[in-house]
Amino acid sequence: MEEKKASAGARVTQEAAAGQAAAAINSMPAALTTFRCPLDGRVFASYADLVDHYNAEHPDSVVPITVTLTINGKNCEILLEPHWTLKQALQFKLGLTGAKHMCDRGACGSCTVIMDGRPILSCQMLAAECEGAAIQTVEGIAADPKWKPLIDAYCKWDAMQCGYCTPGFLVTAKCLLDRNPHPTEAEIKTALSGNICICGTYPRHSQAILEAAEIIGKGAN
Ligand code: FES
Ligand code: FES
Prior knowledge:
Layout: H1 2-27, E1 35-36, E2 43-44, H2 47-57, E3 65-71, E4 74-80, H3 86-93, E5 112-115, E6 118-121, E7 134-136, H4 138-142, H5 148-156, H6 166-179, H7 185-191, H8 202-220
Parallel strand pairs: 3-7
Antiparallel strand pairs: 1-2, 3-4, 5-6, 5-7
Bound molecules: FE2/S2 (inorganic) cluster (2 copies).
């Protein structure tokens, strides 16, 4: 009875997570309608007006730039400072908090996203360099029913403790399964070698990914 209750609770949580991910994607802004000065909060109707404002009021400061990112299949225009990373843009401009801030120096994999089919570290990529690329975050994976078996397997095998590193592992795992639908345990370990888990959940990731690969493979046949 206790086991049934637990699994029912887990299902509700997974469905809620997929709903939250879809809601987060829907809430991302599509196009800029106003241009807010990050230094004094004044709002302008056009980018040209903001540039004029910088020239008049903040002549020694770097003018923010507009960037259009393609995130989870949606084009999003944002205003940001040129040195901002993709991770900062996702978190602070688009409200996507799945890519996690841990080391902020390319060492832990917690901020992993997929860019044009390859896993990348969003803390090491300038947002301005990502224009024109197709970026997928853990929210996009969680909201896609195709990848529900991967999320389910992570829950079933309890492949997380605090969960802070989990989005990065999930993104890397999805990327692996995209290019290798039936990986061996050794291939999984190699693919995940750039993701660090301070809680030490490593053995469970392989179990979860092997099971997800089998279920996804059966669904595809
Ligand atoms: S936060 Fe980006 S690699 Fe650690
Ligand atoms: S589950 Fe805590 S850091 Fe990985």
